[in-house]
Amino acid sequence: MAGNQVNRAVITADEQDVWRRMDEDPVKQTMTLLGETLFGPRAQIRALIAQCGLAQVQEWIARAREIEDAGGMLMKDGQGERRRTFGGVFFVVAKEAITDPEQRREIFVLADTQRHRRKKRNVKASPTAGPPGERWENRGEWIKSMVRGEATTVKVTIVGRPGNPVERQSFTLVRMIQTPKLDSLPKGLPIPAQAPATSYVLYIGSKQWRKVAEAIRNPEDVLICEGVQFWDAQYQVLTVFCTTCTTRLLQKAQRPTPPPPPPAS
What we know:
The chain is of the alpha+beta class. Helices cover 38% and strands 20% of the residues. The chain has helices at residues 16-20, 26-34, 39-52, 54-69, 86-97, 101-120, 122-125, 139-144, 206-212, 248-254, and strands at 74-77, 80-83, 156-160, 166-167, 171-178, 198-205, 223-232, 237-247.
């Protein structure tokens, strides 16, 4: 996996298998590497990967390992000084590297705020919170009683960091994985305890790819693609034929510059 190469000199032998599985569920594997288990760090890791890219997060993990191997990092608490955990060192490294105040707020403040809100909604989101017969595990009888209609238009928008692209003569393939967030859904829905991750393979035309190939090398940028999807049963992935493709930073660069404020009278 070319997109997941890091400084292997500072990665322990026991971590090699975790790195190899990183594309399967990057948040879960990063949590495993850092030894984190709580929802707060999970929300921040998810935000870091989404905003900064998996490759950048891996570089910070490697830097945290270097600090650990050199003796670790101390912190003060109510009882004096103690050594930070490996995960704690990682978050210090990440916070020092992110200098944009708004981005720091989105990752380390808003992500944690959303985690607290999600915690308050756990009773509503619990698969056992609904009345009997209105739970996710009862969906089979509802589906069997339905009469199928016809959808005339279905489009999907994919936003995220791609893995290593596979470039062909007239198109490029990239693969992403996503685990749906179920914490902000309308009250009353039969929400399952956990949604499975979904793999997407995006087919991007060569002309479209040329417009984004250079920009997406920036670890702080993300792809934004829209297209037509269908289930590829042979490879168990959702295929998306992209009709539009750009990146967040390219979109930002194309926005008109706001006019300067009028001079003070």
